[in-house]
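Its record is quoted verbatim for completeness.
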Amino acid sequence: MNYFDALDLPTIRARYPLGPDFLRRYRGMSRDELRAFQDLQFRELMAFGWRVPFYRRLWGRHGIEPGDVRGLDDLEKLPTYSKDDLMESVEHFPPLGDFHGLDAHPDDARPPLVFQTTSGTTGKPQPLLFGPKSREVQSLFLGRIYGLQGITARDVVHSVYGHGMVNGGHYIREAVMHWVGAPLLSAGTGIETRSLNQVTLMKAFRATAIVGFGDYIKRLAEVAIEAGITPGEDIPVRIISGHLGAETAEGMSRIWGGAEVYDWYGVGDTGAIAGEGPDRSGLHIMEDGQLIELLDVDSHAPVEGGALGDIVCTCLYKTDVFPIIRFNTHDVTRFIPGDNPLGIPMRRMAGFLGRSDNMVKLRGINIYPQGIGSVLTSQFADASGEYYCEVESRDGRDEMSVAVETRSQDPTLAARMEEELRMRLGVAIAIRLCAPGDTAEVTQIERRQKPIRLVDRRKES
């Protein structure tokens, strides 16, 4: 069976509409109607999950039997799991672990495997596994988000997502080509295509949209300006869609000549989960296929209101390869209360606000390095957006400092930044000002999709 033979494209399109059909399907639908559709998919997903050894072991350890989970109302009976559990599976059942689910299919219906990995920058790479159905649905969700943001088949899309074994660049290429229909410049990171070459390429082919991680997209604008190329004029970019990190939409728009800037969120395992739309009221969760819970970082209980919590994802559509049922991403965000301005029943969330496994507790306060970057760039125009946090133990107490790039000569800037952080976060954090480019060796901004923002010196003590 090849990739295309394994696809039931008419069913995919009927279940998960995109473009104008997406809004037509869901406008006016109640939360109860949406939940009924989620429940139907969840039951299909659980039937597949019980045939996968990883889940039989995980659920069996918690005393769960098939009759215990009959639908979504029983979801919280199931344990969550994280990347650590997947890597343990890979260690005991190499090379792919026992979570892929391929053996749950009859030999004549076994789907082809789409195989990528995580970057492995913090350890051994994790396999990222997809079948044709799950691959195309996750790509469709991203195509849907790009469409909400205004990207069309008439755009020329420049992508700075990495390729190689990592999922990013390949997945984005498929989403743009298969579900948007736009030509794609697959430049990748600064290692794959040098930054100066990238801006020259964008100028030559009249790129109108850029997709990728905000830190590097901002860096490309600086490279263009240094080369005498005017962003927004010589490179007619009108839309930027990516992961903004510490960079504010206003600052990104300004340096790219007034482009519209949008955020979206997803992880390698799950694909696109939520994206900003024209209403600018937060990220719309693709709840017809992605079931999201927010759990307290410490207690693991569901959070209430607009409290911060770990994003736990169940991919309702992943019934061909690697089912994902209560996967704790350890990414932190919050739900946005109130009705959806688009008139659809789907909830909204803030963007990526940090990682709970990158969290530093100072004097009982949870500090997220990405949150520090957001505060500094939103409050101080002199902060370039490039920074990293450093934590170390001194006299038995954890202390944090932040290296911040700036062109300012203002002798009061560091003290004002320290006071802003103290007022916002409730704890003292030292600021060290750096010249432009001085943090690049630590953050690896030119080489990594996600720059390093935390250096933990406690391990060296």
The domain at 359-456 is CATH 3.30.300.30 (GMP Synthetase; Chain A, domain 3).
